[in-house]
């Protein structure tokens, strides 16, 4: 994700978004073990918290956030995304977080508001 001019003013800072997402995941899931009955609550909480924290930064972006939580069972998981946008301003970041019982994959897409 480094191709999105992370340091330039006016462009999407994926490193900053990455740290926001990690904090949000930690605050929602923390040290919990995987529990199927909690997954809907966790994913909704992570998405809402990420959106709230990103919007609080006051940057001129529309954000889209996706979240997937998966139990660790040894199965494979592959994700991909593709975007057609202005790479000088728009950007994305994907965070893969895990603990001993689950994976959480969160993607943030930021589209500049002209």
Write the layout of secondary structure elements.
Elements: H1 14-28, H2 39-56, E1 61-71, E2 91-98, E3 102-112
Antiparallel strand pairs: 1-3, 2-3
Description:
The chain is α+β, with helices and mostly antiparallel strands and 114 residues long. It has one domain: Ribosomal protein S3 C-terminal domain (2-Layer Sandwich). 29% of the residues lie in helices and 26% in strands. The chain is built from 2 helices and 3 strands. Strands 1-3-2 form a 3-stranded antiparallel β-sheet, with helices on one face. A hairpin with a 3-residue loop joins strand 2 (91-98) and strand 3. It is globular and about 45 Å long. It starts with 13 loop residues before the first helix and ends with a strand. The model is unreliable at 1-8 (pLDDT under 50).
């Amino acid at each position: 994700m480094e191709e999105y001019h992370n340091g330039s003013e006016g462009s999407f800072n994926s490193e900053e978004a990455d740290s926001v997402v990690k904090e949000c995941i930690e605050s929602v899931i923390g040290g919990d073990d995987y529990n199927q009955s909690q997954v809907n609550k966790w994913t909704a909480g992570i998405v809402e918290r990420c959106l709230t924290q990103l919007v609080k930064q006051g940057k001129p972006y529309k954000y889209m956030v996706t979240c997937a939580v998966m139990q660790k069972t040894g199965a494979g998981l592959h994700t991909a995304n593709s975007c057609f946008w202005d790479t000088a301003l728009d950007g994305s970041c994907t965070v893969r977080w895990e603990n001993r019982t689950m994976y959480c994959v969160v993607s943030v897409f930021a589209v500049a508001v002209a």
